[in-house]
Structure formats: C-alpha cells, structure tokens
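To: structure subgroup
Subject: Chain for Friday's discussion

All,

I'm putting the inputs and outputs inline so they're searchable in the archive.
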Amino acid sequence: MMAFLAHLILTAALLLLVAHFVRGVQVEGWGAALIGALVLGIVNAVVRPLMVVLTLPFTILTFGLFLLVINALMLWLVAGLVSGIRIESFWAALMGSVLLTLLNLAVEIIL
C-alpha cells in the first residue's frame, strides 16, 4: 500500500512538472494532479492495452512509434476526465506524454 501511495504522489509531482515545462498542459494543483495520477493509472491499466491491441497493425507499420500517439491519447483522455487538468491540443498531449514517459524512466533508473 505504501508503494502504491508513493508511486501515486510521484506521478502527481511529475504531472505538475510536465505542466510547468510543456506549453498547453495545465494542472491546477496537487489535488488535480493526485486525481489525474490515479485516473492515469486506471486508464493505462484498462484502456491502453485495448488500444494497443486494436492498433497493432499501425504500431507494426510505424516500428512502434504509434505507441507515442496512444500515450498522448491516454493523457488527453485523462485531461478530459479530470476537471483540474487541461490539454489544449494533441501536440501538447504528445509532448506532455513523451516528457512524462522520460521522467518516469529517469525515476525508475534512479530508484
């Protein structure tokens, strides 16, 4: 349970960091970031695998680069579901999802 809470808080902090660096991504505060991190976890566990399977031919044709689009769509979906998170365009969602992925990777390497 503690690991889950730590991961949730860390993801919320990374969402706030992404909002700071990516123009077009806005997170209103820690409350919205925590809810967004929780919803992002649920979306990544439920919706993302379905999207990956349904778009497998595109993913193969693009040598996996279409997964970046799927990640952006998942982040954009979270922004649509959580009232304190706004993403202005697909490109902002794409840049935000790439940065969030890189930050998560860096944290995994450090920890």
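Points worth raising on Friday:
The longest helix spans residues 30-54.
The chain has five helices and two strands.

D.
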